Amino acid sequence: MALSDTDAGSSVPAFKRNFLNACFSANVLTFGTYTLKSGRKSPYFFNAGSFHSGNLLSAIGTAYAHTIINFLSINSELPQPSTIFGPAYKGIPLACCTLLELQRIDPVRWGKVEYSFNRKEKKDHGEGGGLVGGSLQGANVLVVDDVITAGTAMRETIEIVKREGGKVLGFVVAVDRMEKMPSTTDEDGVPRPSAMGQIRKEYGVPTASIVTLDDLIELLRMKGDETDMERLKDYRRRYIASD
Questions:
Q1: Does residue 123 carry a catalytic annotation?
Q2: Which of 233, 155, 228 is nearest to 195 (CA)?
């Protein structure tokens, strides 16, 4: 499944179209039946770990970079990020390839911005510590990650950055699943916010994504894939977030 210029029209930016095509070509985004960590049965799955070649990293780095540029334009009150942070493990290559593309687009603005990521286990020899890359002391940090479902990783990242003396300006993810946070009574029909919405509420931190569940449903509609489109729409009806 590929998204062509004809399919997309003028409503889908080239960077988003290229990102989706890269997702399909590498089976990063697949449709079927998948059990998530929350226990939900999802009709689609996104695996950023499959972006493991130069051309795929270029596509996702470009998509993140343009999403960040748009994000900062919309949230013009935010200061210029001094660090791009990628939570271990999948966020590490995402932070690096995103910063490279931002520097390519605007070397004056992004050339001296640093990247950083955490270690899962602190190093007790050599330089030691729990971080690799630029120091977070006094840093304005923009976090990039793949997909957020429960929000646990987002909270951990905020605490890491705070502990190291930095401030999280925002989160940018590849896919916003737009689904409510899991609970022990997941099928109760009770409205709940998404993980990203809860983070926005708790910490006042803005968020953005390259694509959303709505984008995926629209893509399937344009491609004439009624079966998968209806499955995604049903999933959205069952788990749509209240925010």
A1: yes
A2: 155
Residue among 123, 180, 223, 233 flagged as catalytic: 123
- Residue in the block written with tokens 């999403």: 67
Closest CA to 63 of 16, 22, 25: 16
Which entry of 52, 125, 201, 233 is annotated as an active-site residue? 125
Question: Alpha-carbon distance 156 to 95, whole Å?
Answer: 17
CB 139 within 8 A of CB 111: no
For residue 42, list its beta bridge partners. 34
CA atoms of 10 and 16, how far apart (whole Å): 12
Q: Cα–Cα distance between 101 and 142 in angstroms, integer?
A: 15
SS3 state of residue 83: strand
Instruction: For residue 66, indicate whether it is catalytic.
Output: no
pTM of the model: 0.90
Q: Which tens digits make up the pLDDT trace of 2-18?
A: 555 555 444 668 888 88
| Angle in degrees, 0-180, between the axes of helices 54-74 and 14-25, rounded to the nearest 10 | 140
| Tens-place pLDDT, residues 41-72 | 999 999 988 888 999 999 999 999 999 999 99
